[in-house]
Amino acid sequence: MNNSPSSQSNYKSQLSRKIAFQCFASFAAIVIGFLFVAFIAYDLLKGFIWVEDDPLYIFLKFIKNNLYIFLGIPIIASWVFITYHFVKKPLYYLDHMIAASEKLAIPTDQQIILPNDLKSVQDELNQAREMALRNAQLAKEAEQRKNDLIVYLAHDLKTPLTSVIGYLTLLLDENQISEELREKYLSISLNKAERLEELINEFFEITRFNLSNIELQYSNVNLTRLLEQLVFEFNPMLSDKKLECKLNVSTNVHTKCDANKLQRVFDNLLRNAVFYSFANTTIEITVTQNSSETMITFFNHGNTIEKEKLDRIFEQFYRLDTARGTNNGGAGLGLAIAKEIISLHRGTITADSKDEIVEFIVTLPRS
Fold first, then answer.
1. pLDDT at residue 247 tops 70
2. What is the DSSP letter of 302?
3. pLDDT tens figures, 53-95
4. Helix extents (H) in 110-221
5. Structural domains of the chain sorted by starting position, each given as residue range(s) with its CATH number in brackets
6. Which among 108, 160, 98, 119 has a CA at the least distance from the CA of 14?
7. Rounded to an integer, what distance in angstroms lies between the CA atom of residue 107 and that of residue 133?
């Protein structure tokens, strides 16, 4: 629907003309009706033979002599009634508009209903009502995300922070502690502090993606080289779990993307595959490409993920393994950040799992 000022002005003019036309048409119909009835009555009565002293004849003669009064009074009365009716009509519309505006102030799922003459206004108000409902829901969700961020921030930072404070307090209070034990406590404190830094960086990253307008730095990226480098960097972690990583990709596959952000996505997907893979299995990364899109699939053998968990796997702060916690896992933001990055690339990321196989599929447009 066109909501421009010119279209609204045209609609108001049409409504005004319609009411004015109805008013004059009603008045004209009544006048014509009176004249028609008077003509028929006159035509019928003139055929009678009247006696001069007949009371009815005297009355009819009086009417004839004062015809302008007997026709004028009903016509004027009709004009007053019609004018009152059609002046009241805009006020009636105004009452409906005021009631509708009150509903817009506190929008509900109930449709706004106006008289048929205001159908166009009704449609516009219902559009505004639906938009207000959507905005209210978005505001509610944003507020909930903010509250969740605070709660999870407090929860996830508490454990490593408590450990750091505990070990540093112990070092401060124990004067006779051995050098070996001192180094051990300092090493643990440093690890916990670094873990804190990682968690804080994750929180800042997801907040940045949620609240900022991130601009991608597109370039023509050699996807083959990017994934080869990624697998090479993960070799120590793969060896620790006795895993292999097989890369199925043609030589020099290129795509337009933000290389740094896309590497962040692939890093997270491969890291998750390593964490959740069975030992002595193979992780496969496969790249296929057609004229319109590039598809990157991460495939690993691990516990089947239930459908309920798959539906929530890209939610912020959601962890598949709640026992893993923040001591040896992330804050549950990695996949949420990955989804934000892929969405910025106008692509998709999906997850599937069955028969102890887990697949993450990233699809990117080529243009």
1. yes
2. B
3. 777 777 777 777 776 777 778 778 878 887 777 777 776 767 7
4. 119-173, 179-211
5. 5-106 (no CATH), 143-211 (1.10.287.130), 219-365 (3.30.565.10)
6. 119
7. 6
